[in-house]
Amino acid sequence: MSCSTAGEEDFFLEEKRFKQYCEEFINHSQQIGDGWEWRTSKDLADGYLGKTHFQVRNRNILPDLKDKNDNIEQTLFTHVEESLDDSQVAGACATEEVIRYEYHVLYSSSYQVPVLYFRACFLDGRPLTLDEIWKSVHACYQARLLEGPWDTITQQEHPLLGQPFFVLHPCRTNEFMSSILTSSWKQQNRHTNYIILWLSTVGPVVGLNLPLSYAKLPPEQNTNADSIERPLS
């Protein structure tokens, strides 16, 4: 069983199943070169999904606004999924800034759901502040963060690394995943991987987008995890 139920519409992901879904997720990531890997703690007792990628932030001043106020800027973000080498970084023009993002997916025993931790810094090591993180979130997602189900972006200590990370609080993950899983089950013979469904939902909020091939992952590649058991009606 992948998820236990505490009600007709409640789904709680078991840790064993979480790891199995992560293994399947990593196998596909390696096939397409998406950069996800399983990282373990120093004592090897716990682990998490991890990925590092870079974004190029373009700071462009609108011509019609520059004459009015030289301090008015429009910030645009272009996502770069692959790592940048030294020549690419050196080739960035003066109006561009490269930001390093690190994403971690951990299992929460308290909520019995996955949790997305992330942090970002410039190439000189200066971390982005919470205010800068908010400004990097697309306007449409800012409204959704304020209204839920993601609730808010906060800063917490990483459970395994003991370092400050930003996190999308998991208190309502079960709520919106129940709806997504139920909808997915209505499509016959559709492969269901909890991590893929969840990460494709919350990831774009903080600039993390999954390639479309994850959604097309065929059932025959699901060698380590059975389909999620449907709730009893």
Fill in the keyword field for this structure.
alpha+beta; 233 residues; seven-stranded antiparallel β-sheet; 7 helices; 28% helix; disordered C terminus; 9 strands; two-stranded antiparallel ribbon
Summed over residues and divided by their number, the pLDDT gives a mean of 75
Q: Which regions contain 5 or more consecutive residues with pLDDT less than 50?
A: 4-8, 60-83, 220-233
Query: Could you say which structural class the secondary elements and strand pairing correspond to?
Result: alpha+beta
- Could you say which overall geometry the principal axes of the C-alpha atoms support? globular
Q: End-to-end span in angstroms?
A: 17 Å
Helix content: 25-40%
Note the total helix count: 7
Main pleated-sheet profile: 7 strands, antiparallel
- Strands, count: 9
Report what the structure shows.
This protein is globular. Strands 3, 4, 5, 6, 7, 8 and 9 form a 7-stranded antiparallel sheet that branches. The longest helix has 18 residues, at about 15-30. The protein has helices spanning about 15-30, 65, 85-90, 130-135, 140-145, 175-185, 195-200, and strands spanning about 5, 10-15, 35-40, 45-60, 75-80, 95-110, 115-120, 155, 165-170. It is α+β, with helices and mostly antiparallel strands.
